[in-house]
## 1
Amino acid sequence: MDDTVLLTGAGGSVGTAILEGIGDAYDWRLLFHNPPVDEPDHPYLVGDVIDEETMAEACEGVGAIIHLAGDPRRDAPWDSVLENNIHGTKVTYQAAVDAGVDRLVFASSNHAVGHFETDRRPKLYRVEGEFTLDGTELPRPGNFYGVSKVAGETLGRYYHDEYGVDVCNIRIGNLTRNHPPVDYERGQAMWLSYRDCAHLHDCALQADYDYEIVYGISDNDRKYYSIERAKEVLGYEPRDNSAEFE
Amino acid sequence: MDDTVLLTGAGGSVGTAILEGIGDAYDWRLLFHNPPVDEPDHPYLVGDVIDEETMAEACEGVGAIIHLAGDPRRDAPWDSVLENNIHGTKVTYQAAVDAGVDRLVFASSNHAVGHFETDRRPKLYRVEGEFTLDGTELPRPGNFYGVSKVAGETLGRYYHDEYGVDVCNIRIGNLTRNHPPVDYERGQAMWLSYRDCAHLHDCALQADYDYEIVYGISDNDRKYYSIERAKEVLGYEPRDNSAEFE
């Protein structure tokens, strides 16, 4: 296997967390949507994931992809997520298959299941809450962005079944640097620290699996996303807990 | 509630089966993609479901929608299903919500779960097979058409949760007139007769539910899709069985 790892959406916060944590552990090829302000520490391209030529070039000689690129806005309009997130993920998978890439780690999102959060679960964000999602449930996206992430997971299922690509979908929680969100119970319950984010993606590059959906959060006292599957299959060992910052 | 039922994709085989069986039971408004060859028995429009103006006009004064329109080809290319099936279903849901339509019945497909059919299940299509899908499993589409149908189901989940639209996704099996497919075990196992198809859609217009995923097949001796949910929630009482034609 070629060891180069392609990181799409390298300029975003998840990409930043990954490169800060495991930047020295892989031979990266970064894909930026916009030219980076500071010179990156790794080889890079600038381009769009919906462009087939760009993605063919980006995937050449690559062993694995971490696919983060897309419109990251929670209130992104439909036309944008249809094009950038759904179509962009399809183009990325197709380029991966055409180039013989064995593995794709997909940045899914808590918004894929945002509509499980209803008024009927008042304790959801608190330690006394018991409701938990583990990734086997049918999705309930809370916005078009979430719909697009579910579609990305479904495309991964197809490309895994059809072409044998290893696929790990990480439903990323609330990623913030240094400390959890303040005065925001929901964000604390789904907090993902930068170092846990980097470690989780390291696990997703290394572990042995076929097709997975896991939740990407730290080991917070209160969580309504289970991290058991990530622990069992990926060997995820989170070190942070939002409760320690109260 | 306004009693008019909008039927999109009225010119296809599912639309034909519905109109043959329950054409007299509702005040229909038909939407054809191409001008019909024979003058329809009901008021109709010609237009495209991806056109917002067409859909706004089509949804006016409508109580429920049966949404069949889309590229029906099992080997449809990605760009077509992205536009016609995924985007078209979003436009239809949005027009429905904007017009105050209470209910949408969505023509999903067996292809949403086509990749459960693997070499590891050799008895799948036979009476001695025991593997069964019931609609609670995570989808495994077998082609881009199937991916688009899963995306349509997900859009329905979003529009139900966000706007309270009643949504019934019917994963239609192998619809053929008069008798099941010959020399095609798979098609026999998922056969849906014309009259069972019409009756099932009648049930989906009448029953009390929130968000459902059901399999749309006749009561075949061998089936790897459960019809229990359709019976329980919708009151589906199929009359046909592919085994009676052997």
Note: Strands of chain A lie at 4-8, 27-32, 44-46, 62-67, 103-109, 166-172, 174-176, 191-193, 211-216.
## 2
Amino acid sequence: MKKHNFGAGPSILPQEVFEQSAQACVDYNGIGLSILEISHRSKEFLDILDETISLTKELLNIPQGYQVLLVQGGGNMQFDMVPYNILNENETADFVETDLWSVRAEEEARLYGKTNIVASSKEANFNFIPKNFTVDEDAAYLHLTSNNTIYGTEFLEDKTYPVPVVCDMSSDIFSRPVDISKYHLIYAGAQKNLGCSGITLVIIKDAWLGRSNRPKSKMWDYSIYAKNNSLYNTPPVFTIYTCLLTLRWLKKLGGLAEMEKRNIAKSTLLYKEIDRNTLFKGHAVPEDRSRMNINFIAHNPEHETAFLEFVKKYNIHGIKGYRTVGGFRASCYNAMPIEGVQILVNAMQEFEKVNS
Amino acid sequence: MKKHNFGAGPSILPQEVFEQSAQACVDYNGIGLSILEISHRSKEFLDILDETISLTKELLNIPQGYQVLLVQGGGNMQFDMVPYNILNENETADFVETDLWSVRAEEEARLYGKTNIVASSKEANFNFIPKNFTVDEDAAYLHLTSNNTIYGTEFLEDKTYPVPVVCDMSSDIFSRPVDISKYHLIYAGAQKNLGCSGITLVIIKDAWLGRSNRPKSKMWDYSIYAKNNSLYNTPPVFTIYTCLLTLRWLKKLGGLAEMEKRNIAKSTLLYKEIDRNTLFKGHAVPEDRSRMNINFIAHNPEHETAFLEFVKKYNIHGIKGYRTVGGFRASCYNAMPIEGVQILVNAMQEFEKVNS
């Protein structure tokens, strides 16, 4: 029986993506070959790649003047590739620290230039999104993490800042319409809302290609990816295909406006129960609550293990919180249906009845 | 109907790997989750990773004192990571140029230290493996490409050299028993004999971890992979699973000694026909012929298009040669059964009858 997967990532994808991926492993589109054995130079794969990129542009409404690249290595690789490609040694990048990932991004950037943490919610165990911070007007860029998987906070607006903005959208891309024009560079590991693990989406302003002046190795140079349509080397064919299948599903459902509606409905349902239920409380402050990763803890520490055990009979999977927060984390990515969230809410209510 | 896939890569994998991968996309091992949605920290994936690494060690008979790492980015990424991790700025790496990939490896290494091409078969369109070349005794290492996918030549012996040896085994790893002790570092993109595209195997001597003294970014530092069991960041879960399935198949068949026998039988069958057939001739010199990529051309240039058309009725796929060689390339990786090679031989014989 299929589990309700609330895991933080690699995470749930639409059921039809699982089924279509399986079919392609045996025979891709009836061509007599598995998707796992087709060449990255074949017409079949070039069509997959083109449609993946064009659907990304369409769904995110990416304006002219941006490149869409597909790069291996995940968000961690981008913690290096961004400063390597953008930041000169004598320049400064500003960071807002909202979780462990922003911390890693800032630490890696020190290898390539100067860094400056302009705001942080570290002292409050990252339970809020800093506001009203001041950005250095001469910074090369400001780095943000739009959604904070571990702590369950999220920037839900695309604001204007006095310097170019780089944003790690690994865990909330495609969850709402985004004003891409507010960003010079966006990156996102696939394994939350886009596809299975093994590929990263990079959206970069044309004008930023070749910005930093250091000599670059080919596999770390965004320009090489842009010039070669992300085909300078062999890309992960199957992984990109899972992205395409997910994007097609997203378009069929109505795109990002519809997805945002659903994500608001799901997160509202769960936060309402967290606030109502006498046994649980939320981690993030209400105004910065993430729609993607919903963190809550039990008032009574003994209920933590008990609730994890209790939900098993509901076929609920993956709600254990990260060790630095404890408690529970219900990740409600795009592919999680509201019915799954309702089952978790039912479990919380039943648990309250039994334990009050 | 399943095609006989002679493509150079991403390439044929065992039929049971296609089927087991498909099953896992729908439900991995009956756990109620797809392989595409399981966490890289789950027990299920940790077991996959452990078995992949231990089967790699077992099948390749890797001695004590080596690390087996799994890295994203393919062989191209290793063209940079090897010198970045090993070569200091004032040191020299020696290269034997046997194809376009060795050329790329040498070019990238220039960013990190000095390079020296000690031998090359470029003038002969890479149709042989240079022998009796002299290696600088003070070189940090010698870089070889054991199998040359484009030109169809192969180093079939593991020789001793006066300096540590780095070897790109992307297209012939697991095709024969290898004396790992002759190498300090071996790398291989998965997408020929190991699994689907998206992961690279790196085998490195413990003593070489941290060799170069430059400050390193985490995702490019072999030590980080070694310390974290290749789990510092989210690895491509599904891709690694296809490797495991392929390694299990390899072990079941009898391991690398058996595989070498089969590869000798297949390549002998095809080279014999190339040498016998009045319409075709081989590209590589006989003593350096690859067992993996078998290149041949038509004496009559008009037969090139005609033969590509002719083989379609045999359901033969992917034998067009690379543009710098022309003609045909039949890649006979581990998963290609001798029956497939026999069908190609039949097609060549039939074509000769029709066209003589």
Note: The first strand of chain B starts at residue 4 and ends at 5.
